[in-house]
Structure formats: structure tokens, C-alpha cells
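step 4 of 6: structure.
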Amino acid sequence: MKRELHTVAFALLVTIAVGSLLMMIAGKQPGHIWLQMITRTWSSSYAMGDVLYKATAIVLTGLSVSIALDAGLFNLGVEGQLTAGVLACAVVGAALPAGTPAIVAIPLCTLAAAGAGGLIGGVIGVLRVTRDAHEVITSFMFNAIVVGISLWIGNAVLFQNGTTTGPAIVPGAELPQLGIGGSSANVSVAFAIGAVVAIGLLRTRTTWGHALRAVGRDPAAARAVGISVGRVQIVVMIGAGALAGLAATNFVLGHKHAFEDGLGRGVGLLGVSAALLGRLHPIGVAIAALGLGFLSSAGLAVGDQVPKELTEMLQGVLLLSIAIAVPLIRRASVEVRA
Amino acid sequence: MIESILTLAFVTQVIRIAVPYVLAALCGSLTERAGVIDLALEAKLTVGAFAAAVIGHATDSGTAGLVAGVAAGMLVAAVQIGCAVWLEADQVIVGIALNILALAGTRFFMQVIYQEGANTPPAPAYGDAVLTNPIIVGAMLAAILVPLAVRHTRWGLRLRAVGDRPDALVAVGVSPRYVRLWAALIGGALCGAGGAQLSLAVGGFSADMTSGRGYFAVAMVIIAGWRPALAAACCVAVAISHAIGIQMQLLHPTIAGHRIPTELAPLLPYLLTVVALVIFSGKTRKPPTSLGKL
């Protein structure tokens, strides 16, 4: 636990240092920009609502990446799984009869979102387990394929007169917004909280969770104690895909109420950052997601002073510094103990 | 459709498209044969393309741009090996982080240098010519020389040894770290030149112009069983499917009276790569024994 905190602290310090350097390169005073990032976001209830809206999706995509990593698989396919979820969720929501009550419409749309994401994740998992196809590469290919196919479906049947927006979902499927300063934060935050609790319990309190982490730590040892490694990996990829797909509810049911090209793009990579920054612990992932949501809103808030690409660069720096911090801190803590 | 493919123009188009893939795959073969997972090909291509365009524009010289691209590719490789070998960071995460960093970083520096986020100002362009383009000629040479060097030189022997039995190398007094570094630097130079081809062919860099070529190259390295000559050949196959995709978008061919949707034509290389991965992964050859482990 202490080691994880040290890792995160190291990564954050490196990221702040590199971020400051980049601000200076852009000809600005870092102290001033960091302060404005915080005050401009903190002082506006709209911006804080936006942080929560973004974090809702990042928690789910972050958990998606983290449970796959628990089992030793790198789910880089969140982008495609989320897009499949957005498409399925919006199509089901729009196909329901106009008077469908919320108690029927919302579960159906949610299931469609999670199911579509789980399907893509499952395919990646099956190819990995049965054909030994590297999941990072197939994930990348499937992201492009899913985005391309959903654009084709959009253009062919969904998009309304010249826009890139599909038909609206029925009113019963809409998730109410929380009304924080007119932001898009909505009730789907409950899904995110529920997922954190469920994954937390699953990981530590069930045999499944232990099998999951045993596979990630040492597949050969897991096999030796009778765990079906392949089955665990396929199931975890279905689960990871379903979590990524579930993030679609935030965008479709809670905000746009329709299929839109590009909806949710970028949240997949933020999920990778959240999973690693949260050290694969569900509560850690949730805190990291709030932090990344804040960074992403704060980056927009100072967009008039530094290029908005800065926050994306910081994501890369953050990942790299976590990767460096893990072995450094491990060695440091071993030396202290020895 | 068929007539438009069986032309000299199509062949030269395939060659132009293939060069970045081939150079990236040669880089990936070298780094991975040395035992380091190379997911950072995309970063090396992107940074190489960007540096070539910026220096090419500043000096008005394609050669200076090419040198800058090569240097940029080596720089990314040095950072990658510094993190993944010297600091023992997770190799997959280092690769993905560098790709994110390169994609966002090139756009950031475009804003800082030119106050513009999409394109760099014009650099000298090599255009459509094939035999007068030094990168294309160099890539053809590299596709022949790199496999020969890996097979028949002392350097190549050490490279293969560090990938399969790093402890054996230590026993004869050679540092595995430096063998890995040199493999990655030479690969980085090749991959940076591949990036330079992307931007110098059209005379400028545009955001995300590599569009996943690095990931295709890694896939081809795996499909080819870590053999550089075969990986280069597989890359030509990707380039052909890429070029056919472009032709399909231009010509709108029909299958049994149904037009192939323009959105689906560019997906051809992605689909074929997944199919090839499914068929060939783990079938051709085993990965280098120390791949991903230090």
C-alpha cells in the first residue's frame, strides 16, 4: 500500500515537472497556469459537474483496463468496445415504442451497451486464448474496425438529414441529469459507483477474484493449482468489454440521447491512465478517474493560454513515469528492508 | 477495378506506401529479436515524420529533413531502451506511453512553433518518383541488408543471442544492455527514415499522419515469426491491401450489383491483419525467449 502511494507520488511529481517545462516552452509561467487550472475549474459549478461527467466514464473504462490487467491482459480495445456500446445503446433506445416506461427502457439500453462491449472484448479474449493473437494488436485493429463499421451503419441507416446524429432515444430511456451548474453529469454515476463496489468485492472476496489475480501474477502457477487460465482470461475480457460498453450509458442515456459519430472518443486512453495511476485497485481507479477528469476539464479551462494538446501529452508522461516508478520504488523499498 | 490495379502507377503507389511499413517492421524485428517488446514503432514513425517536416521546412532541404527524421527515430529508441532496459519499466506500457506522447507532442509543438494544430508549412517534397527518392532506395537496400546482417555477422549473432539466451552473452563478457541499445538505435534510425518518407513524400506533416502504421508493422513482425525479411514481405502485402482500399474508395466497385460502402474500404488492411494474426500467431515460430523479460 505504502509502496503504491510512493509510486503514484513519484509519477505525479515527474508529470508536474514535465508539464511545467512544457508550459515554459510554450512561453508561459507554469505557476500561473497550474493555479488558473485549479481556480478556474474549482470555482465554477459547471466545470466541477463536467469533471464528474467525464470521471463517470473514466471510472468504467479504467476498471475495464484494470480487471484485464489483473489477469495479465492489456485491454487497449476500450475505444472499440465503448463505440459498440454507444451504437447498441442508442439503437435499442430509439427502437423502443414511444411510451416505454423507464423501468423497462433503462435496463434494456444498459444491457445492450454492456452486451455489445462485452462481445467485442470477448472476441479479443477468445483470439488471445485460442489463437495466441496478441491482444494489444488485435485491440488496435478492432478499434478501427468497430469505429469504421459504426460510421457505415450511421451513414447508411441512422444519421438524420445530413448530420452525424442518429434518431433520439425514447424519453423513458433518458437518465436524469444531476443539475450541477447545467453540466452533463447524470445518474449514470450510480453505475460507476456500483461497478467500483462490485469489482472491489469480486476481486478480494470471491474465488473468481483470486483466480483472476493468480492468472495475472503467474499463469503457470495458476494452471498448476487447477485454474483454467484460458477460461479466466476469456471471461475477464468479456467483463472488461462490458464495463467499457457500460460507459456508453453516460454519453447516450445521460447526455446526447442519440448515436453520434465520435461520441466518447479519447475516454479509452484515459481509462488506461486511470487503471495504472489507480494501481489496479477499484478505489484507486475511481480517485484517479476524478483526477484525470479534473485535468481534462482544467486543460480546457486554460485552453486560451496553452495548447489543449498539453493535457494529452501529460497523460503520456504520466503513463511513462508510472512505468518507471514501479521498478524504482520496488527496488528502493527492498533495499530499505534489507 | 482490376484494370486500375494492373498498372505501373499502382505498383509505384504500393512501393511508396510500403516503405514506412517496411522500415518500421525492420526496426521492430531488430528490437524484438534483442528481447525488447517494441510497441513504440508508431511513436518513432510519428516523431520521425514531424522532425523531417520541421527541419525540411527550416532548411529547405529534403536531405536535412531526412537526417532529422533518422535522428528523431534514434532519440525515441534511446528513450524507450533507457526506460525499458536500464530502468526496467514495463515494456508494453513504455511503448503505449511513447505512442500517446508522440501523437500529442507533435500537435503540441506544431502549436508552439507554427501556432497551428493540423499541418506544418510546406517542406521539400520527394513526390511520386521512386528511383530518385533516397528513402525508397535506402529502404530496399535495408530490406536486403538487415536480414543478412542478422544472419551472418557477429553483430547479428549477438543480437539473436541476447534475445534467446542473454546469460550466455554475459558469460562471454558482452553486456546485453548495450547489444539491446544498439539494436534499438539502428532500428530507430530505420523507423525514423520511414517516418520521414511519410512527411517528405507529400512535403509536410499533418497530425496523426501515421494512422496506426506502427501497429501494423508490429503485427507483421509477429506474423513473420520475428524474421526481418519475411516481415518486410508481409508489409508489402499490407501496402497492397492499403492501396486496394484507396482504389476502392476512388472507383466504387460493385460486388453482385451492390456498391462497396466507402466507409468499409479503408478497413481492408485491418481485417486482413486480424485474419493473418489469427492464422499465423504462434504457428510460425516461437518469439525470442527473453522477449518482454529482463
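step 5 of 6: annotate
 - Residues 29-305 of chain A form one domain.
 - The longest helix of chain A spans residues 102-131.
step 6 of 6: archive
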